[in-house]
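Usage

Read records sequentially. Each one opens with the input sequence:
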Amino acid sequence: MSEPPARLLDLARNLLQRTDPKTAGLWPRAAALLARQALEAALDDFWREKGVALDGCPTRPQLICLRGYADAKLAGRIHHAWAALSGACHQHPYELAPGHAELAAWLGNVDDLLTSLGGSQTP
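and closes with the structure output:
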């Protein structure tokens, strides 16, 4: 059984709030991965609740369709956050890991999505 989206987002936030030398260099990508998983799980839950068979589709088409079901501005911010989080999850030798402020903004967008879709409550 997978974790609820709000729990995944809380775990990502906890990584942002802790400063531990043992996780230096690891926490930004771990936080990005947890936030992206929260976003994707929230979308899957949303489509199942709506009865729209998109929960098995890749995330990009789900994000495109979200514009027809949610506020277009929010859907655009979520699409951007998902793309940024996806990029942050992959290590590239020529790129730095995302910074605290970037991650905090992306997590804020994911939180806005959970609130908008009614999934911000932790079980």
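Summary fields computed downstream for this record:
- Residues 12 and 111 are 11 Å apart (CA to CA).
- The radius of gyration is 14 Å.
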